[in-house]
Amino acid sequence: MFKPPSKHYVLLLLASLFTLSSNVLAESPEENALALPVCVNGRCTAVDQNGNLLMPFDNRYSNVIAANYKNTIFAGKQGMWHLVSADGKTVLKANISKQLTPLTPNYFRIDEDGKAGIIRSDGKRIAAPRYDYIHVEHNNPYMVYGLKGKQGLLNAHGEKITEARFDSILSRNSATEHASLAIARNDDGRLWLINLKTRQVIPTTATSLEDMEDGHLVAKSRNGLRTGLVNQQGQVVIDIEYVKLGLPSGGLVSFQREYNEPCGYLDYQGKVVIAAQFSECLPFGQKEALVRERHANPLAGKFGPINRQGAWVRPPSYDKADLSGQSIFGIPTPVPGLLSIAKVDEFATKFGLYDTNEGKEIIPMQYQWVAAISPDWFAYSDDDSPQVKVHFLRSEALAPAQGIMDRMGKALVAPSGFVYISLDPSGHFFRAWTGIDKKRKIGLYDLNGNLIIPPNWEMLNIDHRHGVIQAYARIDDTAENNLQALYALHNMQGKLLLSIRTLVCGAQQAIDSAGAVIWPEDPEQYCTQRP
Q1: 79-91: burial string, b at 16+ Cβ within 10 Å, e else
Q2: Is 162 a residue whose pLDDT tops 70?
C-alpha cells in the first residue's frame, strides 16, 4: 500500500518534478541565476549554479521549491507557501497557497477549497482556482485540466487551448513531442486531433499516432487493426485502411494491404511507387531500402538492397535485417539512413550496419551486437565484452556489456559495465546505463569517449542553460514510489561543485567543490543509527 511521504520527502519530489519539467520547451519569464533546492538531514535550502548556498541550511523555512525567477524561491512556512528572495531574508509575496505543485517551467498549480489554479514563478496568478484538477504528464508542453467531468487543454503558460469538452486526452503520444498534436476522445467513440500551435480541433478516425518520421505519423484505427498516414497538420493523407504501414522515410512508406500479402511502397499521397512484391520491407534512405525476397516460407528469404524503382541493386544475401537503433528494453528503433544487417551460422550471429543513404555497408558483420545511437555513433558488443547482470521484472539475466564506436568503426569506449547507451537529446553527451531496473545507475561520457560523470546516480538532469548537471538518487530503495533527491551538482566538464555525503551513522553532510564540509560540521546530532 502506498504510504504518503513525509513533508521533507514531498519537497524532494516536487524539486525533482520541477527539474524534470525543465525539459519541456516553453518561454520563461525573465530569469537570473539558478536556484536549485537541496536538503540535508531534513533541512532545506537552495544553491546557485556554482553550488553556493543562497541561504543557510539553518533557516526558518520547512520546504523549498525553486521559482527560478529573478533570484527568488518558493518557501514553505507554517503550512503556507511564500515567494521569498533566494537568500530567504525578504518575503516578496506571502500566503500564496497551502499547496504548490510544479506544472510546466515557471508555472505551478495552487489548490484552494478543492479547486486548482495556476501561478507563475513571479507570484502572478494566471488562473484563479476554479478547475477540478490540473496536471502535466510525461513532460508534455501542455496542461490537462478538468472541469465539470470533462477535460480540456491549456498551453505551457496556462492559456486555454480548448474548452473542457472531452472525456479523455491522451497524455503520452509521440505526436505531441514531434508534431504538436494531442489526441482527445469521448466515451461515445468520437476522436479529435488538437493542434497545440493553432488550437484547431480536427475530427479524426485515428485512435493513436505513433512512429513520427519524415514529417508524418502512422495512425491506427479505433480497433487498432488498420493503419494510415497523418501529416504534421493532422490531415489524413493515406486512408486508414491498410493492415500495416512501415515507418515513413525518404518520401516513401511501406505498405501491406491485407494479411499474408506481399509489401511494397507508397508515396505520402497514397500512390503506389513500388508494387507489392516482397515479404518484408524496411524504411528507405536517400538511395535504397533493404527488403526480404518473396519466398514460399516467408521467413526463409534473404534481405538485399533495392533502389527507388524497386529493382535489386545486388542479389539478396543478408540473413537478417532490421531497424538499426535499439531501446533500453531491446526493441529495434529507427535511425534515419541506417539499417541493421546480420549473418547467421550454426555457431553465432554477427551484426553490422548498412547505410541506405549511400548504399553500402559501413560496419562489417563481425560484432556480437551493434546498434546505431545516432547516424554518427554506434553502440557495440564484441566477443571480448564482459557479461553484465541485468535485473528486470523480478528476473535476472546476463547481457553483454556495450561500448561506443564512431562511424569509421573506431572504438571510443571499450565495452565495460554498461548495458545500454544513448545520446543525450542535446547531442553533447552519451548516457551509459548499468541496468534497466529502477536501481540502475547512469554515467556520462563526452563525444570523445571521456568519462565525465561516473555511474553513481540514478538520474542525471543536464541543464545547458545554467551550465550544470544535476545528479539524483532514490530516497528509499524499498519504497514503491520513485522519490528522488539531489545528491550532486557538476559543471559541464564533470567537476563536482556540490555533493551530499551520507555517513555510516546515517547523518548527511553537504560538501563543497574543494571537499570541505559546508554543513553540518558536527553531524553527531543527525545520526539515525547508533552503535
Answers
A1: eebbbbbbebeee
A2: yes
- Residue that is written with C-alpha cell 513531442 in the block: 177
Whether 4 has a pLDDT exceeding 50, the answer reads: no
Of the candidates 354, 334, 322, 359, the one whose C-alpha atom is nearest the C-alpha of residue 248 is 334
Q: Cell for 188? A: 461515445
Cα-based distances in Å from 451 to 18, 93, 431, 493, 494: 27, 44, 10, 10, 8
**Alpha-helical regions (H) of 448-508:** none
Yes or no: say if 471 and 452 are a contact pair by the CB < 8 Å rule.
no
CA distance 425 to 447: 13
Q: Are 203 and 183 in contact (CB under 8 A)?
A: no
Q: Three cell numbers at 40? A: 540535508
| Cα–Cα distance measured from residue 173 to residue 379, given in angstroms and rounded to the nearest whole number | 27
CB neighbour class for 183 (10 Å; exposed up to 12, middle 13-18, buried from 19): buried
Find where cell 526493441 sits: 331
Nearest residue to 471 via CA among 29, 51, 115, 166: 51
CA-CA distance, 255 to 403, in Å (whole number)?
35
Exposure of 441 in the CB half-sphere (CA atoms within 13 A): 9
DSSP 97-139: ES-EEE-STTEEEEEETTEEEEEETTS-EEEEEEESEEE--TT
- Dihedral sign for Cα 355, 358, 363, 366, please: positive
Which H or E run includes 21?
helix 7-21
* Reported confidence tier of residue 68, pLDDT bands at 50, 70, 90: low
pTM: 0.88
Q: Which residues contact 346 (CB under 8 A, 6 or more apart)?
A: none
pLDDT over 90 at 269, yes or no: yes
According to the model, what pLDDT value does residue 29 have? 42
Cα dihedral: 47, 52, 58, 60 (round 10): -40
Could you tell me which residues come within 8 angstroms of residue 67 by beta carbon, excluding any fewer than 6 positions away?
35, 73, 74, 83, 106, 121, 122
Q: How far apart are alpha carbons 56 and 47 in whole angstroms?
A: 10
Sheet containing 100-102: order of strands: 100-102, 107-112, 115-120, 125-131
What sections of 323-377 are H helices per DSSP? none
Type of residue found at 302: K
Which residue has better confidence, 12 or 378?
378
Residues 107 and 100: their CA atoms lie apart, in Å, by: 10
Burial zone of 30 (CB within 10 Å; 0-12 exposed, 13-18 middle, 19+ buried):
exposed
> Cα–Cα distance between 353 and 351 in angstroms, integer?
7
Q: How far apart are CA 52 and CA 279, in angstroms?
A: 62
> Residue 306: its pLDDT value, please?
99
Is 185 in contact with 192 (CB distance < 8 Å)? yes
